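User: Okay, second chain of the day. Same drill as before: sequence in, structure tokens out.
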Amino acid sequence: MAVDVNSFYEALTGVGWYLHRILAHLAERDDLRLRLYGQSLTDRDAEAEPGAAQLAVEVPAGPAIERVVYAAPDGLVVPPGGRSRSSVS
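Assistant: Same drill. Structure tokens below.
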């Protein structure tokens, strides 16, 4: 099951805490696979790139949990400051 964990990248509110508790409860199941998707492309984003998305809470761990991360392909990541409007055609 795909799970959007973007609420873990900011101070947790009711929705974030609810999701965290559900994942913590389900994490130990061995008959379930939870694939967690969020803002970070790689596990090292927060360390390697200033201003990169950082988790506000530790992601639950267990046999059912798989955090999905990807290495960014060359040319995909926009440099800090982004593109200027004048460079857009």
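The longest helix spans residues 14-26.

User: Thanks, on to the next one.
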